[in-house]
Amino acid sequence: MDLEEASGVAKKTIADFERGARSPHNRTLVDICAAITGAGVDFTNGGEPGVKLKR
């Protein structure tokens, strides 16, 4: 998956977040999260904290 293409967030912006050079806006986090969950990743909570692939 190409996160830049799937989320509409520029590659440089994503890289800046990853290295802590800037903090994302809420809308950007929503876009990135939607792209990741759209690719089949499930963010879990409660009894199974973490992430896993959707079945």
Automatic annotation (TrEMBL):
Residues 2-43 form the HTH cro/C1-type domain. This is HTH cro/C1-type domain-containing protein. It comes from Methyloceanibacter caenitepidi. One of its GO terms (molecular function) is DNA binding. It comes from the Bacteria. InterPro entries: Cro/C1-type_HTH, Lambda_DNA-bd_dom_sf.
